[in-house]
Design brief:
Keywords: Membrane, Transmembrane, Transmembrane helix. This protein has about 375 residues and is mainly alpha-helical. The protein has 16 helices and seven strands.
Length: about 375
C-alpha cells in the first residue's frame, strides 16, 4: 500500500466514523424529543395485591385510642364495643408480628418498634403486608401459631432477637445497601431541606433515591466495587439521566416550566414559582451543574421532590389522592409525566430491577423500602 492510499484509507475511516457518530446523536436526540426513551415499564406481578391493600386502607390512621374518638361515644355500651374492638385489633396485630418473628426476628422487631411508637394499626398493616409479600416471594409461609388471647408487647419484645439471621429483604443484606444507606444518612440535612421546600415527605425522596441507586449499583457492579463502595458515596448518573435521582434533562425542564404555569394541573401555587429560578443567563449549563455536581446533591433532591409533588398534585386536582401510596408515586417517578394519567385503578410497576436474582418493579421496590423500616430513625414513616 502506498503512502497516499494509506492516508486515503485513514481519511475514509475518520469521515465514516464521524458520520456514524452524527447519525447516532441525531437518532438519540429525536428518541428523547419524541419520548421514545421514556420508561414504559411493566405492571408488577403483585399489582392486584397492592390495589386490594389500598381498597381496605384509609388515608388516616385507624388508631382508636384518642381522646377525640372516645369523646364522641354516647353510651357506655358503645364504649364497651369500642374497647373490645381496640383490644381485638391490637391482639391480632401483635400476633402477626410474633408469627413473623419466628422466621425473621429482625423485621418483626422493626415493625414492633414502629407499632409501639404510635400504635398506628394502618401503618403497621402496611409494614406487615410488605413483609408478607416478600416471605411468599422467598417461597415461605408465615406460621399462625400465636394465640391472640395470650399475646403481649412485652413477651414479643423479649422473644425477638434482632441480631439473629439475615434481613427479610434481600437488598438490605447487600454491600450496595450498606454503602447507599451510609451515604444517605450523611445527606440527611440536604434531603430534609429539599423536602421542606417541595412540601413532601422526606422518606418519599429517600425511597426513590434508594431504588435509583440500587438500580445503578446493581447494573454497574464493577463501577460500584472500584469507586462508590470504597468512598461510601452515591452514584451520580451523567448520561441520559442526571444526578443521584436519575432525572432526565427534558424532565427537569418540564418540572421548571410547570412551577410557573398556573393553568397546569401540576401547578403547585405561587409560593413555588421561584423554587428553581436560575442565577445565570445560561440555564442549560446551570441545570446540568445543579444535577451532576459531586458531593452536593441538594438540587437532585429538590428536583426529585418537586417532580413527585407535581404528579401528586395532578392526581389531587382530578379528585384522586395517591398521597398514601408510595408504590404509585414511585411508579410515576420512574415512568414520567407522560404516563401519569389519573384513574381509580392505577398500576404498580415501572422498569425492572434485578437484585440477587430477584426481580422488582421500580414502584414495588419503592414501597418495600418505605415500609421496610430501614433508616426510620433518620427519615420516619409518616404515610399510613
Amino acid at each position: 500500500m502506498t503512502l497516499r492510499k494509506f492516508f486515503k484509507a485513514i481519511w475514509k475511516i475518520l469521515v465514516y466514523g464521524f458520520a456514524a457518530t452524527g447519525v447516532i446523536l441525531v437518532v438519540g436526540f429525536f428518541a428523547i424529543k419524541f419520548h421514545i426513551t421514556d420508561e414504559k415499564g411493566v405492571v408488577d406481578s403483585h399489582n392486584n395485591d397492592f390495589q386490594e391493600l389500598s381498597n381496605t386502607s384509609t388515608n388516616n390512621s385507624t388508631n382508636l385510642w384518642t381522646a377525640d374518638s372516645v369523646g364522641t361515644l354516647k353510651t357506655i355500651d358503645e364504649l364497651i364495643v369500642y374497647l373490645e374492638t381496640l383490644r381485638k385489633t391490637k391482639s391480632e396485630m401483635l400476633c402477626e408480628i410474633q408469627d413473623l418473628g419466628t422466621l425473621y426476628p429482625k423485621n418483626a422487631s422493626t415493625i414492633l418498634n414502629e407499632y409501639t411508637i404510635a400504635y398506628n394499626d394502618t401503618l403497621t398493616k402496611k409494614m406487615l403486608f410488605a413483609a408478607d409479600l416478600q416471605v411468599k416471594d422467598n417461597g415461605k409461609e408465615i406460621p399462625t401459631d400465636c394465640d391472640p388471647k395470650q399475646v403481649s408487647e412485652e413477651d414479643i419484645a423479649t422473644s425477638l432477637d434482632s441480631t439473629v439471621g439475615e434481613n427479610l429483604y434481600p437488598w438490605i443484606n447487600t454491600d450496595e445497601w450498606a454503602t447507599i444507606s451510609s451515604a444517605i444518612t450523611k445527606d440527611k440535612e440536604a434531603i430534609d431541606t429539599a423536602a421542606k421546600k417541595a412540601e413532601i415527605d422526606p422518606r418519599l425522596i429517600v425511597a426513590n433515591l434508594t431504588v435509583e441507586q440500587l438500580r445503578l449499583f446493581h447494573s454497574q457492579r464493577e463501577l460500584f466495587e472500584k469507586f462508590f463502595q470504597p468512598l461510601t458515596i452515591l452514584g451520580n448518573a451523567t448520561k441520559i439521566s442526571l444526578g443521584v435521582m436519575g432525572i432526565k434533562e427534558a424532565t427537569a425542564k418540564q418540572i421548571e416550566e410547570r412551577l410557573k404555569d398556573s393553568s397546569s394541573p401540576y401547578y403547585l401555587g405561587p409560593d413555588h414559582e421561584h423554587d428553581l429560578d436560575f442565577s445565570s443567563n445560561d440555564p442549560d449549563t446551570e441545570r446540568y451543574n445543579r444535577l451532576t455536581t459531586e458531593n452536593d446533591y441538594y438540587y437532585s433532591y429538590l428536583y426529585g421532590g418537586l417532580y413527585m409533588k407535581q404528579m401528586m398534585t395532578q392526581w389531587e386536582n382530578a379528585g384522586l389522592s395517591i398521597s398514601d401510596r408510595p408504590e404509585i408515586i414511585g411508579t410515576l417517578f420512574n415512568v414520567g409525566f407522560n404516563q401519569s394519567k389519573p384513574n381509580e385503578n392505577p398500576k404498580v410497576g415501572g422498569s425492572t430491577i434485578t437484585i440477587r436474582d430477584k426481580k422488582y418493579s421500580f414502584g414495588s421496590l419503592s414501597f418495600e423500602f418505605y415500609y421496610s423500616g430501614e433508616l426510620a430513625t433518620e427519615f420516619p414513616l409518616t404515610i399510613d
